[in-house]
Amino acid sequence: MAFEKSAFIFDMDGTIVDNMAFHTQSWITFFEQRGMSLDADQFFRTTAGRQGKEIIRAHMGEHLDDDEVFALNLEKESVYRELYAPHRKTVGGFDELIARGKEQGVVLAVATAAPNANIEFTLDGLDLRRHFDVVVGAADVARGKPNPDGFLLAAERCGVAPARCIVFEDAPLGVEAARRAGMRCVVLTTTLPAAAFAEFDNVIAIAGDFSELDIEALFAARPDQSTYTRPTMTTDFQEQAAHPADENKIIAERRAKLATLRDKGIAFPNDFRPQHKAASLHAEFGDKSREELEANPVPVVLAGRMMLKREAGKKAAFATLQDSSGARADGRIQIYATLDLTGAAAMEALHHYDLGDILGVEGTLFKTKTDELTVKVTNLRLITKSLRPLPDKFHGLADQETKYRQRYVDLIMSEETRRTFKARTAAMSSIRRFMEENDFMEVETPMLHTIPGGAAAKPFITHHNALDMEMFLRIAPELYLKRLVVGGFDRVFEVNRNFRNEGVSPRHNPEFTMMEFYAAYTDYQWIMNFTEAVIRQAAVDAHGTAMLTYGGRELDLTKPFHRMTIVGAINKFAPHYTNEQLHDMAFLKAELLKFGVKPFSTSGLGSLQLSLFEETAEAQLWEPTFIIDYPAEVSPLARASDTAPDITERFELFIVGREIANGFSELNDAEDQSARFLAQVAAKDAGDEEAMFYDADYIRALEYGMPPAGGCGIGIDRLMMLITDSPNIRDVILFPHLRREE
Q1: Which of 150, 258, 436, 544 has a 20 to 30 A CA-CA distance from 183?
Q2: What is the predicted pLDDT for the residue at 212?
Q3: CB neighbour burial string for 561-587, b if at least 16 within 10 angstroms, e if fewer
Q4: Can you tell me the distance from the alpha carbon of 683 to that of 685, in angstroms, rounded to the nearest whole number?
Q5: pLDDT tens across 224-267, in order?
């Protein structure tokens, strides 16, 4: 079998070896020795894939220096090795999979959050290192999972693109890391049951061990294929770990605290006015020395959500407040309360405050012995009582659907999510600013249409009770915006929400955002140049540079975007087709059937060529590329070419194999537009649900005369995916559509 170069990247703990129960027990023992009681099931579920230093700091405090953390981690690992040594062995079927991989020329790698001592204990202790071309451990990357650093570094060292890597994992944090790296994932249920991974769109197979996998299917699978296998049984311990801790008791305790607050007076005060933000305090005073802050005390008044609390008896306590300030949405600051300075009543109250509570503090800045900027608290107040516990201490939800469904929790816990939406706002501000600087006027047009128009798409249908008429949610604002050009507004744009009753996928959402603009006395060449400039500037303003990384691969928006025709793109990416074949309608129809595409009876040559382009070339357009000269039959609103009337002055912009923008020289000939609408009606009658309706009012507007113009619609959500390196469109939409919650 011919095989394109690929890599298998294995997590070590819980995947190559079934040892996670021993890891968890060693952590529980380690923390119990320090007087800390942890819920084993919750800990088991939320720490797999984290580096030891992250776990220690999350539970014991950010104030620990690197040497202290290193020593503590060594102590914990010695407990683990003593527990696991008698049970050390590989998961079933591992040797066979490795052997088959080598036969097929697959590059084999390990990417683990374990320290070097544990890697040696496992890989060298079982004589496994010789099998692997690359080994990446905690010492090689700064962050553990769900950050994708380890997997991306392994792929780089393997010399294999992320899309050609298959990750073998046992934990949700690891699967999420693989998703962020743009890699497919095989899940082993050595740690959690299959249900824990149901919402990950990058999982291609689930099995109890390697022997249950269809190895040949894994080798043959393309990056967009799934080979999902049956879920398997788990141990009693694994079943317990699979279910989240019962929150009812915790919520009841917090409600009781709230009831006590109500009895004392106003439970939710609204008279506290913060004057400072964490990020600005760090920016202004972070470089000051302890001596400087002591000599010139800085009074502060701020509020934030308590994310961490560390009490030293009843006389002192540290806590970390988060306000999500700053360009990177990473605003956090430590506070320090003492019996002497803060007062007995406030200290007693702080003892009963819970993580997630919103506090207001007043005090002065100082630096701790580890040089951490901290607020020495003189006054402390509870502003809002949190009734539900935060999901964990590790800045993120493991369940992907929960991240989307409860975005408010995701925003609290995930700095990365907050950065994504800060970047989206920065990009939108950039686009609006760029448009206004180029004399475009922002307008608003209707979202309820009597006739769906402006795009080839299936609409959502609703009913207007007062007017007793059927209406459609907007699929595009185009025809209304061009009516404004008729009316004399030469340059208009709208940031608009559109609704298309079509499929949901990692790059499609039925409700989405576009920025659509029209400029009189321009053509599609001018519009292409302008679109390129808009996108490049948005990337710079949101990301700091137009040199991006997407899925671990470089994406350069600084260079001029490529331009090629539909046939030219097919010739480049599918060169086995001859020119005669590409102009033979019978051949094209037969060839499309091989891809599972059945053309409409009304499809002409241009439409067939476009369909073949979509199947053979579109996904390979990684670098920004304008595909130009679309056939007139699929471009009912675009101006026909003066030299070739069967094609139009239209383009679509593709980046990383996805359509980002669509634009053209506008058709301003009312009679030609009327004829094209009639052709669309015929196509709809022939079964094309996405064909357009006849819009008599728009024809009437054109009959008053529209100046020559160009226009374009830019898909904002897909553009934000590129700028923020997000693999799924739902990652860049605050509240994406999901199935109704059961």
Answers
A1: 544
A2: 82
A3: bebbbbbebbbeeeeebeeeebeeeeb
A4: 5
A5: 444 333 222 222 222 222 334 467 888 999 999 999 999 998 99
